[in-house]
Amino acid sequence: MPDLTAIKAQTLAVYERQAQAWDQIRDVSLYEKDWLTRLLADHPCPARVLDLGCGSGRPIGQHITALGHQFTGIDASPAMIEIAKHHLPAATWHVMDIRDLSLHQTFDIVLSWDGFFHLSEEEQRAALPHIAALVQRGGNLLLTVGPDAGEVTGTVAGETVYHASLSPQDYQAILAQAGFQDVTLTPNDASAWGRSILFARNKA
Asked: pTM for this structure?
């Protein structure tokens, strides 16, 4: 069995080492577009959009900015943020950990595509209410997670990284408690290349 504790401890360092390679191999076909369209559909332009674990800012940041929305990206990797600033100098960027958010505003839209799931189950339980608190009344939240509770590994430019997920029932309970009126989890969505999409709408 892999040493998941050690793999998790090295996951940020993997992204820091592989930032340039990750940016070069990141698929920019925008297969995420259908979900982004749903996420943004309830909000007139310009919406305030926060991306947690934004990576190099493309293609998601580029797409949202091109639509005219106000985009803020955070990532724990300084190397990723430097690349993102190059791709989208007009956006707002912060080096920041999802587990320790210090943003003093709320957003119409909060998303994390392939970022939030690097937190452990315990960390996700602790972070999710704080993330939900960043969503403005009437706002939406989208996270890629796992189809059920557990820990697995993935790869970034050939190096192993850590992933985890809560159960769909746990996500639904936490986000309902946070005030979201409609919470769904679509497991292994083929249109999103097998991602499991947690989508919470219309925060009270």
From this structure: 0.97
